[in-house]
Write a structure and sequence with these properties.
heterodimer; A: 365 residues; Rossmann fold; Alpha-Beta Plaits; 2 domains; 4-stranded antiparallel sheet; 12 helices; 14 strands; B: 312 residues; mainly alpha; 11 helices
Chain lengths: 365, 312
């Protein structure tokens, strides 16, 4: 990885060994119910370079450390150790300058004053950001227009839908026109149409040149929007690349999906063939041992499931496609009828599952 | 989504990221006295006050009760005092030997209404961030570059205004219903009230830090409230207290405030008469805000370090 200094990325985001440990008090059960303290490493030595103008996605399961990372970068909580620069400013020593340079969409609907209208909310935050009063009115009208809330601007926020509140949160983040935006699961809880509209807006913002850090566990969203993604698992950054790059270098580079059923089934063209006699003797058999025997010695893993007598087996791993002739031959030889055999392009979800599963196994070893 | 697309404030397409933030007045530092910074701070404080009033006005009955409750709350004290004073207030003579005045209605009405004013100010500053924390808006407010002391000041400004109106209403009503005599040296009254406001604002800041960090500091605050109610001599003169309690009362900031305000409002005291009270109040007005700011900053940093700013 090329090491880029904070100054080189003055419009972006740079972290080095950023760590956050929480001390959690839990009540113990048992004879002596003395409260116990334990340490939770929410973010573990995170080193990240996000270039100016980049839309970077941070992916991870619930509790992986995504939100804690955003909270540290936005100065809401202090890191336990390590350094972080946002727009060229240190998040600990130059917190006020960082806050002036960022716009944040935090999760939850209660981030607005519900008894105030959207315009009153924005007017209030314009003053908090020290917006020039001459610009204030124009800018509020602009951001309301950007998020398509102009015609509902004078309604109280308590009457808004979830999607409208989320759009208002984005309008507030854009109010002072900051170079960096943090979007923490902006489409969580939105219906399909609202989520799609918000994604389209985020795309426009990215093409307008904002540096955007987006956290999500919606992998399709990350694939659609982000130029690069980082996968965070148990507080550690385990992979960073473009969605395509991750696909190429991932162990899940090839996915072969095989659908098969026992020869001699009622619909099979091979019904009555002599070889089927073997199949009838083993009605509950699985094709997995046959397939795993063929793949033995390779890094390809096979997993399968069955429904209505038909098996679907997914083989993931480098060069899985090259095993197709041997797989089909072996299945036929062992009394299996091939219904379909397809090579699938791995999605970001496949890669995410692959990487986080590897990490999980590594942790157990 | 936008029919105009995303553009910057000049209506031009956003050509790329701006490297670093705009140089806004408040980037000069939280205590800058640069005119632009001062103007920006003033706008922020006014916006906070406006927001607070808009929110309160949204709850009509609650808003109306602000102006009625304080008057109703002091009536029991006044009628109890009348009952104890006996028919035609014959006991007022005995009262004056303790309090230095026969105007027991004025004594109690001023004590109770000013107690309302001062405690409201104290608790409102102390709990303004707690309210935001419970509402879920504190983190959003904390994400702005506005100085923390300014956020508390703005909230207090709105409350101070409402409290001042409330207190004046109460005094006017007492004047109308009970014939409260008001002999006022206005410059002296404004000085005493201003010094009291600064002192209580400083103490409120200490509470704000404690409440933000400990979350459940309400109980501590209630305890302190009850102790101060006794030691400040809200509805009785301090001279009725045992000697050892009287000594403790002199350590209570509110007792100095009430003594000075009663002296101005009832006895028509002069600057010279109140030189001791003014000296003490000036020291509190200078010291408590500084102490409050330091304590608040320490607890705010600890809260962010612990990562519990948004928690409640």
């Amino acid at each position: 990885m090329t090491v880029v200094s904070a100054r080189d990325l003055s419009g972006g985001i740079v972290t080095r060994d950023l760590t956050r440990v929480f001390h959690i008090r839990s009540s113990a059960t048992g004879e002596k119910s003395r409260p116990m303290k334990k340490e939770l490493v929410a973010v573990d030595r995170l080193s990240l370079d996000i270039r100016p103008g980049e839309l970077f996605g941070l992916l991870g399961r619930n509790g992986a450390g995504k939100t804690t990372t955003i909270r540290m970068l936005s100065t809401l909580i202090e890191p336990t150790s390590g350094t972080a620069y946002v727009a060229g400013f240190d998040v600990v020593r130059q917190a006020a300058a960082v806050r002036a340079s960022i716009g944040c969409v935090l999760p939850g609907e209660r981030t607005h004053y519900w008894k105030l209208t959207a315009r009153e909310n924005l007017r209030f935050f314009a003053a908090m950001y020290g917006l020039d009063p001459k610009r204030e009115k124009v800018r509020i009208a602009e951001v309301l227009d950007i998020v398509s809330l102009s015609d509902r601007a004078d309604e109280r926020v308590e009457n808004y839908s979830t999607g409208m509140r989320q759009r208002l949160a984005l309008a507030r983040a854009l109010l002072h026109d900051p170079p960096v935006l943090f979007l923490d699961e902006p489409t969580a809880g939105l219906d399909v149409h609202s989520a799609r509209a918000l994604r389209s807006l985020v795309k426009q913002l990215a093409s307008a040149g904002y540096t955007i850090l987006l956290t999500t566990h919606n992998l399709q969203e990350a694939q659609e929007l982000c130029t690069r993604v980082g996968i965070i698992h148990k507080g550690r950054l385990v992979a960073v690349d473009s969605p395509d790059g991750l696909r190429k270098r991932s162990g899940a580079a090839d996915i072969v999906q095989v659908r098969c059923r026992r020869l001699g089934g009622t619909n099979g063209p091979w019904q009555g063939a002599p070889v089927s006699a073997r199949a009838f003797l083993q009605p509950d058999a699985s094709p997995l041992p046959v397939i795993r025997a063929v793949l033995d010695g390779s890094e390809i893993r096979a997993e399968g499931s069955t429904k209505d007598g038909e098996w679907t087996v997914t083989c993931r791993g480098p060069g899985a496609a090259s095993f197709i002739p041997r797989l089909t031959a072996a299945l036929l030889e062992h009394g299996w009828e091939l219904v379909e055999c397809a090579v699938k392009e791995p999605s970001l979800e496949d890669i995410f599952v692959e990487i986080t599963a590897d990490e999980e196994e590594g942790a157990h070893e | 989504m936008s029919k105009h697309g995303i553009s910057n404030t000049a209506g031009q397409p956003h050509m790329g990221p701006r490297i670093g933030p705009r140089i806004e007045p408040r980037s000069r530092g939280p205590f800058s006295i640069h005119p632009r910074a001062m103007a920006s701070h003033l706008r922020t404080a006014l916006a906070l006050a406006r927001k607070k009033l808009l929110q309160e006005a949204a709850y009509g009955i609650q808003f109306a009760s602000w102006f009625v409750t304080p008057f109703l709350s002091i009536l029991p004290y006044i009628y109890r005092a009348r009952f104890l004073a006996g028919p035609e207030g014959r006991g007022a003579e005995a009262f004056s030997r303790w309090a230095g005045t026969t105007e027991y209605v004025a004594f109690i009405a001023i004590g109770a209404s000013l107690w309302n004013w001062v405690t409201n100010l104290l608790w409102e500053v102390g709990f303004c961030f707690r309210d935001e924390q419970e509402e879920g808006t504190l983190e959003q407010m904390w994400l702005t570059p506005a100085p923390r002391w300014l956020l508390a000041l703005g909230n207090a400004a709105a409350n101070s205004l409402v409290n001042l109106i409330m207190t004046l209403c109460v005094l006017l009503l007492v004047h109308l219903f009970f014939g409260l005599p008001l002999v006022v040296n206005w410059p002296l009254l404004i000085t005493v009230a201003g010094l009291s406001w600064l002192a209580m604002y400083g103490l409120g800041f200490i509470y704000a830090g404690l409440v933000m960090f400990f979350k459940e500091a309400e109980h501590l605050v209630n305890l302190v409230n009850d102790i101060v109610l006794v030691l400040a001599g809200v509805t009785f003169p301090l001279s009725v207290l045992p000697v050892w309690l009287r000594g403790m009362a002199r350590l209570t900031p509110l007792s100095w405030i009430l003594t000075a305000l009663r002296a101005v409002l009832i006895n028509g005291s002069t600057w010279h008469d109140l030189r001791l009270e003014l000296t003490v109040l000036s020291a509190m007005a200078a010291g408590f805000p500084v102490l409050g700011y330091l304590v608040f900053t320490v607890f705010e940093t600890l809260t962010r370090r612990r990562g519990t700013l948004g928690g409640y």
